[in-house]
Design a protein that fits this description.
The protein is α/β, with parallel strands linked by helices and 355 residues long. The chain contains 15 helices and twelve strands. 43% of the residues lie in helices and 16% in strands. The radius of gyration is 21 Å and the shape is globular. The mean pLDDT is 95. Bound molecules: pyridoxal-5'-phosphate.
Length: 355
């Protein structure tokens, strides 16, 4: 039997995304036992409790449970940005690249982007870009949106000092702040900065339970009570009012208790993966860029889609994010040992292509 066959007979090591995680037995039990009611009538006790818990955790007044992070981003920006005004964000932001134009399609929001490799703009550059009241000839800036950790740059943690400087500028200029915190949990695990310290820098924050926290479904938008009340109306208008959603809330609640404390392990696994790739193919990895559970690979002359196909043949699944950029994401269902093994295989494939 060839080595490829031997590897192929084991279940693949799936590093495409942390969204592939499946609910654990404990989480499924918590879901089965959840106390529920009709959430459109605000009568689901599990969901009401979760909305209060997450708002408080992030230093905010109110929370709104959403089926996806795309929806909670759209609702946050939809309430902060009036029709025809703009949100500023970086060119690789999930809201700009991966939400299919929903902000414009549903809420008339326009977007203007900046580009930096790690998604953080220096505050003095933002000061030249943003104008709260641009008068009758130019688009006025209503909000700035940041992403932490930053997905498409490879899970970069945004430095708290940079976030503070941007928030201070925006507030002084009458511009709202939205955080796409799909993986804010990972930023918190990597830095120890309290979630509320991050949260209070923003008017609205979106977080996901369906990534590294391992819940099957669920995101949350938090913000001031008045803002969240308006977002609740928009959610219903989009058809996002849910009924016995406490079943899902129970999974998210369980995730905060049992999965949030273990996220640092995913970061260790990502570091092990990156090290295994880097010892063979150092030019594919920026070791300083590996800050959380996402590893960005520069595939060089080998097209990323080709690397993805070859890796699949060797029992490792990763994603192509650009012509020469691939991404691997560690999560609860991949051990550090498996991540290292996957890194060795990816390193071999990258090196083999050069000979
Ligand atoms: C996954 C993700 C989201 C939300 O995605 P959904 O699939 O809609 O839940 C938002 N922002 C970032 C950065 C993400 O990685």
């Amino acid at each position: 039997m060839s080595r490829a066959d031997a590897e192929g007979s084991q279940p693949p090591i799936d590093l495409r995304s942390d969204t592939v995680t499946r609910p654990s037995a404990g989480m499924r039990r918590a879901m089965a036992d959840a106390e529920v009611g009709d959430d459109v009538y605000a009568e689901d006790p599990s969901l009401n409790r979760l909305e209060r818990r997450v708002a408080e955790l992030l230093g905010h007044e109110s929370g709104l449970f959403c089926p996806t992070g795309s929806m909670s981003n759209m609702l946050g920006i939809g309430v902060l940005v009036p029709r025809g005004k703009e949100v500023l964000c970086d060119a690789q932001a999930h809201i700009a690249r991966a939400e299919l134009g929903g902000h414009a399609a549903w809420f008339g929001v326009t977007m203007r982007t900046w580009f930096t490799p790690d998604g953080v703009a220096p505050v003095d550059f933002l000061q030249t870009l943003a104008t709260a009241d641009a008068g009758p000839y130019l688009v006025s800036t209503a909000a700035i949106a940041l992403e932490n950790t930053h997905n498409f740059s490879g899970g970069r943690v945004q430095p708290i000092a940079a976030l503070q400087a941007i928030s201070e500028f925006a507030r002084g200029a009458g511009i709202a702040m939205h955080l796409d915190g799909a993986r804010l949990w990972n930023a918190h695990a990597a830095t120890g900065v309290p979630l509320a310290t991050y949260g209070r820098l923003f008017d609205t924050v979106s977080v996901c339970f369906s990534k590294g926290l391992g819940a099957p479904v669920g995101s949350m938008l938090v913000g001031p009570a008045g803002v969240i009340d308006r977002a609740r109306v928009l959610r219903k208008r989009l058809g996002g009012g849910m009924r016995q959603a406490g079943i899902l809330a129970a999974a998210c609640d369980y995730a905060l208790d049992h999965e949030l404390p273990r996220l640092a392990q995913d970061h260790e696994a990502a570091a092990a993966f990156a090290e295994a790739v880097g010892t063979q193919a150092p030019e594919a990895i920026d070791p300083a860029g590996v800050q959380s559970n996402i590893v960005r690979l520069d595939t060089g002359a080998l097209p990323a889609v080709e690397l993805v196909e070859r890796a699949r043949g060797r029992g490792v699944r990763i994603s192509a994010m650009g012509t020469a950029v691939a991404r691997a994401v560690t999560h609860r269902d991949v051990s550090t040992a498996d991540a290292r093994r996957a890194g060795t295989i990816i390193g071999e494939l990258l090196v083999a292509d050069r000979h």
